[in-house]
Amino acid sequence: MTDCLFCKMVAGDISPDTVYEDDEVLAFRDINPQAPTHVLVVPKRHISTINDLNADDAELVGKLYLVAQQVAAKDGIAEEGYRTVMNCNAGAGQSVFHIHLHVLGGRPMRWPPG
Ligand code: 5GP
Ligand code: ZN
């Protein structure tokens, strides 16, 4: 999608601070970090929201978590703990409509989230 920020990153039109990339997934540091580690893990294929997922996407979504696991290990937060969040639609705080898994860590996390 030409008007999608994360598709532009996947296409190389915008260069994020990439921490992981393979043929299906890109992970990069959030421009406005909410924790010492704040990485966004995105599928290279455009999917707007969780509501747009179908059964064929199950493996791809699982892979986002495997990449999150690697990102956490690389940033040294795997053992102390980290949070993964995927917001769905504006009411939950989604502002970029290309699904992405937030990986947050490096500070204590409160519950429930706001
Ligand atoms: P959402 O609010 O959709 O769950 O998360 C979108 C995230 O994208 C936000 O945390 C925001 O800071 C991040 N973001 C927005 N624009 C950019 C950008 O141009 N570069 C990077 N690296 N992150 C961005
Ligand atoms: Zn997109």
Outline:
This protein has 114 residues and is an alpha+beta fold. The protein has 2 helices and 5 strands; from the N terminus they run αβββαββ. It has a 5-stranded antiparallel sheet, with helices on one face.
Q: What percent of residues adopt helix (DSSP H or I)? A: 10-25%
Mean pLDDT across the residues is 97
Count of DSSP-assigned helices:
2
Query: How many domain regions?
Result: 1
CATH class: Alpha Beta
Characterize the largest beta sheet: strand count, sense, and whether it forms a barrel.
Answer: 5 strands, antiparallel
In CATH, the topology is named HIT family, subunit A
Output the keywords.
114 residues; alpha+beta; HIT family, subunit A; 5-stranded antiparallel beta sheet; 2 helices; 5 strands; binds guanosine-5'-monophosphate; binds zinc ion; HIT domain-containing protein; Histidine_triad_HIT; Histidine_triad_CS
Explain how this protein is built.
The structure is a single chain. With 114 residues, this protein is an alpha+beta fold. The protein has one domain (5-105): 2-Layer Sandwich (HIT family, subunit A). Helix content is 21%, strand content 22%. The chain is built from 2 helices and 5 strands; from the N terminus they run αβββαββ. The protein has helices spanning 5-11, 58-74; strands at 18-21, 25-29, 37-43, 82-85, 101-105. It has a 5-stranded antiparallel sheet, with helices on one face. The N and C termini lie far apart (31 Å). The mean pLDDT is 97. The structure holds guanosine-5'-monophosphate (5GP) and zinc ion.
